[in-house]
């Protein structure tokens, strides 16, 4: 896969099927720094310790499902983009995935061009969200500084 991104984005892959984890890691490892886990609980544990701009998770896993994982990921790391994968093409799964906040939904077997395009969009979306958050933080800081300066000027005028 040709890498359109400048740096190796970290991707967390959660799937209880080792073969699926291997296929995803093999395909994505040229452009992405992939970490794999076999369950949603391990994914959450890693997300609490490290930053992953993109998470790819199977919907159907033993224990916590991918649909249950999405809101927890977004609560912990709101800018992270979660892509859910499933062998089911049931439209209800797609709707539910998007309703709980997934960035996208991909069906198995994977169309590697679709996966590549989805990954590129997810990283771009993550980059835009983090840039927006940085801009908002800088703007908030600037407003606080200007407000403090105006308060100081007002106090000086009142004291005169």
The assigned structural class equals alpha/beta
The fourth-level CATH homologous superfamily is Response regulator
Number of E-state strands:
5
Order of helices and strands: EHEHEHEHEH
Spatial strand sequence of the major β-sheet: 2-1-3-4-5
Mean model confidence by pLDDT: 92
C-alpha Rg, in Å?
Answer: 20 Å
Counting DSSP H or I runs of 4 or more residues, the number of helices is: 5
Q: How much helix is in the residues?
A: 55-70%
Biggest sheet overview: 5 strands, parallel
Query: Strand content of the residues, in percent?
Result: 15-25%
At CATH level 2, the architecture is 3-Layer(aba) Sandwich
According to CATH, what is the topology?
Rossmann fold
Distance between the termini: 69 Å
Polypeptide structure, described:
The protein is an alpha/beta fold and 160 residues long. The protein has one domain: Response regulator (Rossmann fold, 3-Layer(aba) Sandwich), CATH 3.40.50.2300. Helices cover 56% and strands 17% of the residues. It is built from five helices and five strands. The chain has a five-stranded parallel β-sheet with strand order 2-1-3-4-5, sandwiched between helices. Helix 1 (18-28) links the parallel strand 1 and strand 2 (32-37). Helix 2 (40-49) runs parallel beside helix 3 (66-76). The longest helix has 48 residues, at 112-159. The mean pLDDT is 92.
């Amino acid at each position: 896969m040709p890498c359109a991104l400048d740096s190796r984005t970290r991707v967390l892959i959660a799937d209880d099927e080792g073969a699926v984890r291997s296929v995803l890691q093999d395909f994505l490892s040229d452009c992405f720094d992939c970490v794999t886990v076999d369950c949603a609980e391990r994914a959450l544990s890693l997300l609490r310790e490290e930053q992953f701009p993109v998470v790819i998770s199977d919907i159907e896993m033993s224990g916590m499902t991918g649909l249950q994982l999405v809101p927890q990921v977004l609560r912990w790391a709101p800018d992270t983009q979660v892509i859910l994968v499933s062998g089911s093409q049931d439209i209800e799964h797609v709707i539910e995935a998007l309703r709980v906040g997934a960035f996208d939904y991909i069906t198995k077997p994977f169309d590697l061009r679709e996966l590549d395009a989805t990954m590129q969009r997810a990283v771009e979306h993550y980059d835009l969200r983090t840039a927006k958050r940085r801009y908002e933080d800088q703007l908030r800081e600037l407003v606080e500084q200007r407000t403090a300066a105006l308060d100081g000027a007002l106090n000086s005028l009142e004291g005169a």
